[in-house]
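PROTOCOL LOG
Step 1. Enter all chains and additional molecules of the complex.
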Amino acid sequence: MQKIKMNVPLVEMDGDEMTRIIWQKIKEILLEPYIELKTEYYDLGLSKRDETDDQITVDAANAIKKYGVGVKCATITPNAQRVEEYKLKQMWKSPNGTIRAILDGTVFRAPIIVDSIKPSVRTWKKPITIARHAYGDVYKDVEYRVEGPGKAELVFTSANGEVTKQTLHDFKGSGVMLGMHNLDKSIESFARACFNYALDQRQDLWFATKDTISKKYDHNFKDIFQEVYDKEYKEKFEDAKIEYFYTLIDDAVARIIRSEGGMIWACKNYDGDVMSDMVATAFGSLAMMTSVLVSPDGNFEYEAAHGTVTRHYYKHLKGEETSTNSMATIFAWTGALKKRGELDGIKELVAFAEKLEKASMQTIENGIMTKDLAQLSEVENKKIVNTIDFLKEVRNTLETM
Ligand code: NAP
Ligand code: MG
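Step 2. Run joint prediction.
Step 3. Record the structure below.
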């Protein structure tokens, strides 16, 4: 069989620990036998980031800007213990944060759904994708503990010196307060990323805030989404036969629970933080959750939502057998290859990526899975396999297809 050829390289970002091992094996067992893989390789493993003073992460992000599509392995975000463990020059920032800042992107998280693993919410039949705004609000707030009586004010001094003042509260005793902000530009970018992704996926887009209570702050989010939609996306949505739907956040939560799924749910920063954990847990397993960063100018970075699975890696280092689930990492690759194929007009590449996704899901439906899925799956006669054997089993399924 002739291998599938690629024209434009995929930006490949290697990572750390257990996922770094899986990364190599996915390429070896599932990709390289079928594709003449063309990638521009960036090693975002912690040692390399330290060696290059994290320049490698910046270079990788710029490469995604240049080529349009990247695929990333999970990476360690260093803390004090990691600085010690890896003898780091300093506590480097989260690579995902660095890449997101350069691409100005929004992260979309969606579960991989197989029939034999039922979501906790009975009505859910299709994936629900959460898009979380990653700037501002309570994550960039200023907080103050009020110890006794006094007046709290919201003061804005414009660039030309004009001052406006509003009373926040006349404190008669102790209490707390906070100030937070957001930027029209950031909200616009978020809106565009969401509308673009909805078109890309041909799925409805839902957005919700508390604009009835927060008549300026949250209302601003609602207005910007509506403006961007009316000006730039309305016709495209109608052509694609998909819908943009705005409602109140409490109404959205109730409707989501009653729904079949199948929509993209755009959330403000805090709502997204909370709801993505709820949706992920209700769908089953972190190991089945994929993630894609989409920039407002249309660059894509695919990855698994989980981390480097440290506990399994330490077992692996001790020579013990591991049963780490590679599904989300496989889907990061297939997502990126599909996108590359679409952009470059390589139908075989798109078809192969889709087939590999089907083979991975079919393997689990056939009862062959890693340990994490065993207690969730309703298949009878399960066969629990180790990390590498799962990939080999997917290869076998793929061969029969
Ligand atoms: P984690 O790697 O996601 O793992 C947490 C636990 O979830 C694991 O110990 C395991 O549970 C289970 N799990 C996650 N993925 C799994 C998989 N593919 N197969 C089977 N089980 C899986 O999170 P963490 O332990 O909190 O973080 C480890 C490192 O990852 C940290 O250094 C962190 O900075 C980094 N991290 C990176 C990213 C990223 O690059 N996007 C995201 C999050 C965390 P059991 O141990 O019970 O089997
Ligand atoms: Mg959270």
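Step 4. Note key features.
The radius of gyration is 23 Å.
The chain has 14 helices and 18 strands.
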